Amino acid sequence: MFYRELGSGDKSILFLHGWGCDGSIFENVAKRLKGYKCVLADLPGFGKSESPPESGWRVEDYALSVWYLVQKLQPSPRYIVAHSFGCRVATVFAALFPQAVDKMIFFAPAGIRTFSLKRALRVGSYKLRKLFRCSNPDKSYGSQDYRNCPSTLKNTFVKVVNQDLSIYAKRIVCDVLIVNGTEDVQTPLKHARKMNKLIRHSNLVQTDGDHFALFYTPSAFAEVVRLFLEGGK
């Protein structure tokens, strides 16, 4: 898996991006987290990482690939910051490898079933694609997403969006901060509320804005991360 490291410090943060994006979406946030080594990963199939086999991956496969990455990093990241699809991966990772995670921050989390998968969600704007260098901003569900998938990811997409990760969320034991935009139509607030109920040591914070709200203000995003990691709940 391709990754980049920004900054330096005794503590390390792993950043996991949303569907259709890559690690660079977190670059402006990571640059503001002085004193931390920030690891910006390109999940398989995105950015500079190789794609999963055409037979497709489940979220568990992504979580295992993250485990292999974490094993070779020094210092090993004890914190995870994830957005949307990245929250799916982090949810399974933390459930399978609880000893590897101390705290996580989920922004606009996906992966908890609250409505029919037939409900297609809106496509991100060109402005977002350009701003965040995403080929297709994370919409998480819907036929439009499937049509936009490269052929190598179509089977993975189908497998991923059909997984309800509630059973994994219940197994998470670390502290988790969940942040969700009040105007997010891609992963609506009800997703975050349900995840908050499932994860025993979690808190939910609502923020103004949409699916990418915190990325518009990287300084504020970085401050949220810092405050939580340095003692916040």
From TrEMBL:
GO MF, any single term: hydrolase activity
Keyword Hydrolase (UniProt): yes
Pfam families: Abhydrolase_1, Abhydrolase_4
A single Gene Ontology CC term: membrane
Entry keywords, A to Z: Hydrolase
Domain called Peptidase S33 tripeptidyl aminopeptidase-like C-terminal: residue spans: 174-232
Domain AB hydrolase-1: start-end pairs: 12-109
Protein name per the record: Alpha/beta hydrolase
PANTHER family in the cross-refs: AB HYDROLASE SUPERFAMILY PROTEIN YCLE, MONOACYLGLYCEROL LIPASE
